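WP5 quarterly update. Target: Glycine--tRNA ligase. Source organism: Palleniella muris. Length: 516 aa.
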Amino acid sequence: MAQEDVFKKIVSHCKEYGFVFPSSEIYDGLGAVYDYGQNGVELKNNIKQYWWQYMVLLHENIVGIDSAIFMHPTIWKASGHVDAFNDPLIDNKDSKKRYRADVLIEDQIAKYEEKVEKEVEKARKRFKENFDEEQYRATSPKVAELLAKRDALHERYQTVMNAEGGIDLEGMKQIIIDEEIVCPISGTRNWTDVRQFNLMFKTEMGAAAEGASTIYLRPETAQGIFVNYLNVQKTGRMKLPFGIAQIGKAFRNEIVARQFVFRMREFEQMEMQFFVKPGTELDWFKEWKERRMAWHQALGFGAENYRFHDHDKLAHYANAATDVEFHMPFGFKEVEGIHSRTNFDLSQHAKYSGKKIEYFDPETNERFTPYVIETSIGVDRMFLSVMCHSYEEEKLDNGETRTVLHLPAALAPVKLAVFPLTKKDGLPEKAREIINDLKFHFNCQYEEKDQIGKRYRRQDAIGTPYCVTVDHQTLEDNTVTLRHRDSMEQERVNIADLRSIIEDKVNISSLLKNLK
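Structure tokens (predicted):
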């Protein structure tokens, strides 16, 4: 099945089983805005808990805050967002659709890579067991031609992105013309010039229109951490190195919001700013790269599905930057950014606020502005990566197909579903008794409608790792049938043992224990 078809099925599955709904759907929706349903919010909250507990519980020198969405407008002047938070946009005159010019070019680079993979797959089918992939990649003229085109385009793209004085907008349009990139809607190459567009949402604060001041919905959560650096450092008596973590909503007026919840106008971030002594930042940058990759891989999705993408173009305030990319159905895509931001942010806020934002080192009697290592992960992108990897249409031995989410048990919305075999003979009451005992320890669900097989399938589809069936034998010996989602194996266990069997496996700590 084509990967785009798999992705469409995942999007459909998210709606059908209460994970993600189009926002305001009864009013025909709102572009690139989504609501998380009853199962989606549980999965999302579990992802956030996994991140928060890793950052704050496992690191003695990291604390958390929750800063306001509304912030003083000068903050965004100091951070550079007012003047420089722009995307290069281009319109197709025939379809009237607007696109990010840089994304069109990056997609073209990816297409060359996809063509290479298709050539490899064709050769694999042709030569079968005699196929030597490494040799083919090294000797195929077609592969060499495609890679040369990719590399030439990549080099040219970096040149226009790193042009003196900012992005070379004319050069960007020329690339689109030369590569014969067409509009996905109209199929034509009738493009406007490329221009810059600021991504921040504006609103007004004040009781009367004439006295209102313009403020912005925050486009990132990081600045709320930076402006609270002094408050946290002093009240917490924090010593370098230390970090401040935050989870919160951010807003960007994305013109090319796409790929479901991957790129939205309202989204959620998990960010940690780690303050260090100048001169040590690149060592800490390397350290946090390793820690963050280990956090991702502890989910058990396979190391081959992750990679680092080091930035060719660094922001003016950074001296190192990389992305953690995950293999989505539409290619390797960024889920987390790790950046060495130097002392830019604290220095800018000191300059614009007139306040000294420094650290006093009692060991050296020095005062200095700390450097910062940032780790920033998109909750929604993380949610999507978990859904994409977990979704499977599994062929069974009896010829049937079941749709199952192989979610890590600790992230699953429901940990245990309890079914009475029938609606009579005291079985529902016994099932309720089990739930009433276990619901204080993990999320349980009761279900009595339909045959047991159908109930199993519904729980498979939302990723429930364990199901318990209460039958007539239960009333005799207090045992139940415990069914495991992934293997579909069933075992007879005592009701008194259920908690000890399940709890440790579905707790967030089960994931954290995989980390050093």
